[in-house]
Amino acid sequence: MPTEHIFATGAEAASDIAARIATILSDAIAARGVATIAVSGGRSPRPVLEALSKVPLDWTRLIVTLVDERWVEPVSADSNERLVRETLLQGPAAAARFVPMKTHAADAYAGQPDVEAAFAALPWPLDIILLGMGDDGHTASLFPQGRELAEGLRSDALTIAATPPAAPHQRLSLTANAILQSRHIFLQIGGPAKKAVYDRALAGGPVEELPIRLALCQQDVPVEVWIAQS
Prior knowledge:
This protein is an alpha/beta fold. The protein has helices at about 10-30, 45-55, 80-85, 110-120, 150-155, 175-180, 190-200, 215; strands spanning about 5, 35-40, 60-65, 70, 95-100, 125-130, 160, 170-175, 180-190, 225-230. The chain has a seven-stranded parallel sheet, with helices on both faces. The radius of gyration is 16 Å and the shape is globular.
């Protein structure tokens, strides 16, 4: 079972997540000389990334990358890279090395081989993968009923190009294989609707139905979940 951290508000949860991340990254730098984290996009991670940017770390020894990315230019409001640059990679934290998931290729499928090569060159296992979860139970860009879902769950690759069944933009995403090649999996959820999906996922069932189960219903990587009640 995941370790749960329950807070009244998203702001309180975000502060606690940032502190926990900072501790693990600091320990990783001390132990191995480098620390690695992959973060998700969306609204929920923003306060976490803003708080983390203010933590005193040896940022020159940190590698930051993404759990997934929309195939849009980094200046787009939909770009997760833009979110990370505007929130986390500020001040001293700008010294961290950022590994993007968007290339100049025409589409995500053409860009995937170069992204795969860049990710294969990272020091695995990653120290932290910070996941989010959609109301449909998707995580990263592994969507229920997505045409690439089966491949994303079973591939030996680290990354996959995907077209969501409903959401806009092609995506580049970590695979289940990559997510489970990590030292720590963190999940951030907020509000009663997502808590209900989380509870359904924990109850068990096909990963294809609720892909977040790939992280929650396994025993190999420790999982911590931050739940904001409002």
